[in-house]
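TL;DR need C-alpha cells for one chain.
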Amino acid sequence: MEVYLFCAKLMKNIELYIRTTDFSALTQNNTSSLLSSGTIRILIFHVAMLFTIKLFNKVNYTQRDVLSILPIEFDDHQDLLRSVILEITELTNSYLQTPPPLSINTVAKRSDFTTFIIENVLIKLESVLRQSQLDEED
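>> reply
TL;DR here they are.
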C-alpha cells in the first residue's frame, strides 16, 4: 500500500508542478516545443519513471528501495523534477528525430521509447558512477 501511495503522490506532484509559476518560467526560458504542460501530461508516466530512477540513482530499483525513503517530501525534490522534465523533453525530441515520423501520443505508448529512455539514462548513470569512483581514488 505504501508503494502505491508513493506512486500516486508522485503523479500528483508532477501534475501540480506543471501548474506552477516555476514551470511557466521554465517553458518561457526554453525554446523546445515539447516543453508544455500538455506534452508533459502525455509523458507523465515517463517523467515519473525517470524521476524515480534519478532519485535512487539506479534503473532496477525495488519495493525495498521505495520503502526506504518513505515518507518522502516531494517539495524537497523540485529541482530534480525540473531537471527530469527537461531531460525527458530532450530525450523525446531525440527519439522523434528517428524514422518513422510519429506523433507524441504514439511515441508515449511505445515500449521501445521506454527502453530508449532507460538506455540513455543508464549511460549517464554509469558515467556519473565512474566519475565518482575516480574522485574517490584521488
